[in-house]
Amino acid sequence: MIGIYANQARLYLEMAAEPLSNGAAHQSVPGRYILPVHQRPSYSGNGKVAPPMLPVVDLGGDDDGRIAEEIIRAGREFGFFQVVNHGVPEEVMGAMMRAAEEFFGLPADEKMAYYSTDGKQLPRFHTSVRNGAGEEFLYWRDCLKLGCHPPEWPDNPRGLGAALEPYTAAVMAAARRVLRLAAVGLGLCEEHFEGPLSGGAMMNVNHYPPCPDPSLTLGIAPHCDPGLVTVLMENVGGGTMWVDVDAAPGGLVLNFGHQMEVVSNGRLRSGEHRVVTGARVARTSLASFVWPELWCTVAPAQELVLAPGKGPLYRPYSYGEFLGVYVAEAGDRDAIMAHFKH
Ligand SMILES: O=C(O)CCC(=O)C(=O)O
Ligand SMILES: [Fe+2]
């Protein structure tokens, strides 16, 4: 079965197959998952420079000025950082990860009950995505998409909803604190990101089974996340970016998305990342996205375009328009942003 979601000029193709997480362990990489040489993980022709290590921001304590400064410094250089003392209880994180892993352990037909190529459907299971832009190969990933606001989850496994609600509430509270601190650090009013600008949220529950030859595959192509900020939890240290990200014990990884780069008028970076696969153990990651409501107008903050010589770098647009371009350009950072440059 091949589903085609046509959006503007490009096609976004997905091929429904046996979920990667089912069946016997793979002995060799099936040909349809093998990347062309110039897109393989070790190919260095992409000119990316890996940061030496991911900054760690301690959200505990009440020295908000210091924390805001650290968030801005990390956001300016990498768009990626870890947070500790983030207020999400370890047992809530553990219960959510266990429920996520239980889903991927279900028989294929029980997972495929949630399979859809309709990008708007939640919850939604998909597997082995083929990006648009003429790519012939598939990515090594199963993914369950969940609603966070309001929470929407599959009935199977039974405990998933009970784990999702407290996890999402706590993660959203941590994300809101980071957004308030980022606003202060940028010289904006503390509430700048509140309301419709951060009114949408959903989660990718990603699962990457062991791959017989990780040098030939990718779990996810290089991309920036579309929203404001993403909060990531992973079960095993993995290779999320061009530098391996091993989350501090109990820590969460945050990255800013395209909307943060626009609202901050380029002062904060949207962190580009990709996912490499691993040979030995399956990796599960939970990526919680905070983003604007579809109808919300996004534009650089007025305060950040008034300084002499600092005009707006981007034009105003609705988040719905942005998402259409994001899909049509298959996540290609520069191609996407070219649509919105002033
Ligand atoms: O699995 C990961 O580490 C990252 C997942 C990701 O980039 C995404 O879901 O957008
Ligand atoms: Fe991502």
UniProtKB/TrEMBL annotation:
Gene3D superfamilies: B-lactam Antibiotic, Isopenicillin N Synthase, Chain. Residues 192-292 form the Fe2OG dioxygenase domain. SUPFAM superfamilies: Clavaminate synthase-like. InterPro entries: DIOX_N (IPR026992), IPNS-like_FE2OG_OXY (IPR044861), IPNS-like_sf (IPR027443), Oxoglu/Fe-dep_dioxygenase_dom (IPR005123), Plant_2OG-oxidoreductases (IPR050295). It comes from the Eukaryota. Keywords: Iron, Metal-binding, Oxidoreductase. Pfam families: 2OG-FeII_Oxy, DIOX_N. Belongs to the iron/ascorbate-dependent oxidoreductase family. PANTHER family: OXOGLUTARATE/IRON-DEPENDENT DIOXYGENASE. This is Fe2OG dioxygenase domain-containing protein. It comes from Triticum turgidum subsp. durum (Durum wheat).
